[in-house]
Description:
This protein has four helices and three strands; from the N terminus they run H-E-E-H-H-E-H. By secondary structure, the protein is α+β, with helices and mostly antiparallel strands. The longest helix is centred in the C-terminal third of the chain and has 36 residues. Belongs to the RbfA family. Keywords: Cytoplasm, Ribosome biogenesis. It comes from Caldicellulosiruptor naganoensis.
Amino acid sequence: MQFDRADRVAEEIKKEISDIIQHELKDPRICAELVSIVKVNMSKDLRHAKVFVSIFDKDKEKITSTMKALENAKPYIRREISQRIKLRFSPEISFELDDSIEYGARISQILNQLKISKNEEEEEILEDESEGEQEN
């Protein structure tokens, strides 16, 4: 698997933005339980970075306030990235909400419910069979 420069820079930006969000942003609107950077897509000319953010929280208001806080912090994050990563141009950052972790958790929950109901049905069948054997 071959990585080009845009992929390497995207991974580095992902690490740096994660660090900035966790340790340096003091915005009280970032109040969600878990904020993580899932992926960064860089343009080939390294001037644009699309950052996919996963916010895991049940309260939709907290998710929207966290996204607004990240949007307002873009200039600060961009300046920090330009200081930490030596690039000719500091990339323009855009944040996109990625709900794939939440979606995966929901699917996992549904599968667990199906598994539990299947186990209950199997237990009922075994009980019925054992009652039928005891009658004979």
